[in-house]
Write the structure tokens for this entry.
Amino acid sequence: MKDAGYEHAHSSPIKTPQQLAVVLVLAFAIPAIGIVLLTQYIVSKQQVDPATLAPDAVAARIQPVARVELADAAAGPRPLRSGEEVYKQVCSACHAQGVAGAAKIGDKAAWAPHIKEGLAALVKNAISGVQTAKGVMPPRGGDATLADWEVAAAVVYMTNQAGANFKEPPKPAAPSVPAAAAAPAATPPAQVAAAAPAAVPANPELLLQKFGCLACHAVDKKVIGPSYKEVAAKYAGDKSALDALAKKVKAGGQGVWGQIPMAPNPQVPDADLQAMVKYILAQK
């Protein structure tokens, strides 16, 4: 007789042909599905955001912590101009023809009372400006960029043309450039961008004061030249007035009301001239 326990231990869980068929199908299907899924995962194309491939985005990801850029050395202080150069470029606007009460170059009689005041007094007046009933001397001749020594050198040059014997003051030594400024440390690009100052529009009222225009003009009253309200009224409705007046002020010469003596000349940027003239034409 066969042992019942032995028979039970060796019996198969598959009892019918249908169960055997299901087992065989699953035995082949499950590995096949796994292989297909694994293959699709390996060869599938991952989706990438196009924005991350932009040149700027790539450069930002791979940029180093700091970088060194070679550039031209920063421009140092400009060379001081001689007294003759300052006269030709600035002072001659009035002193060449004796405009606005200015003593004409070489006119000994006109310069004599000024020479008696002494060099120190003349230089002080030329730097700070003077306004009298006879005329106006704008600060630094209307050129705010002139150094004190340049003003003094120009005064010596003009007075000596009229018989004075003043000695030009010693020329100051050019300031040295600090070592730190000559070789700046490398700065991360992000900090460089953050440190860049935003452009600030020029204030036309400050420009008019800076370049000496207010020595001869005022907003609402005539000084030596016309008031700005008179100019605005004269050119009201003239679409070409802005460019025409800017060019006239730049070059100097004969204007509608007479000589324009205080032409700022090349040292004034065209954008500043446009801002000043636009302000003048806007007066009501």
